[in-house]
Design brief:
Elements lengths: L3 E6 L11 H4 L4 H12 L5 E6 L3 H11 L5 E5 L8 H10 L3 E5 L21 E4 L4 H13 L6
Parallel strand pairs: 1-2, 1-3, 3-4, 4-5
């Protein structure tokens, strides 16, 4: 049976490719999604991707995902450092979530060093640019037993 993965992106990630390319790279969100789709092809994983700039919509997307997804690769953007609501949503859905960041948040401003989400996520990947999404998807494949850890 095929696994289902949600690729979820938070605020300002719709501007990838043009937003601070020296920090976030030159690929668009559509480019990154295409790379993840290509990576997942051999594993017959069904990928859905969503993005919102609104915290409540992201909470709703996570709630809905618990009914169909087997895992989530989530770049929560700045909500990482502010959102207890997203932390609680991740804890509530009881499916593995991998937190992903394009930049190394620990090499940036100090307010970015704390994640409210990390304690309820399967793991956290940061600093590898768009490839972090691939690493997150690979981590879920391992959690599902589809690849060796």
């Amino acid at each position: 049976m095929a696994k289902h993965l949600l690729l979820l992106n938070g605020p300002n990630l719709n501007l990838l490719g043009t937003r601070e390319p020296d920090v976030y790279g030159s690929l668009t969100l559509e480019d990154i999604t295409s790379e993840v789709e290509q990576f997942l092809q051999p594993y017959a994983v069904v990928l859905r991707h969503q993005q919102s700039n609104h915290e409540g919509e992201l909470v709703d997307m996570l709630h809905i995902a618990r009914n169909w997804a087997d895992g989530v690769v989530f770049n929560p953007g700045a909500y990482t450092h502010t959102s207890i609501a997203l932390r609680d949503a991740i804890a509530a859905i009881e499916i593995p979530v991998v937190e992903v960041h394009l930049s190394n948040v620990h090499a940036r401003e100090s307010f970015r060093h704390h994640s409210y989400l990390a304690p309820v996520c399967l793991g956290q990947i940061m600093g590898f640019g768009w490839r972090g999404y691939i690493l997150g998807a690979h981590a879920l494949l391992g959690a599902w037993g589809l690849v060796e850890h």
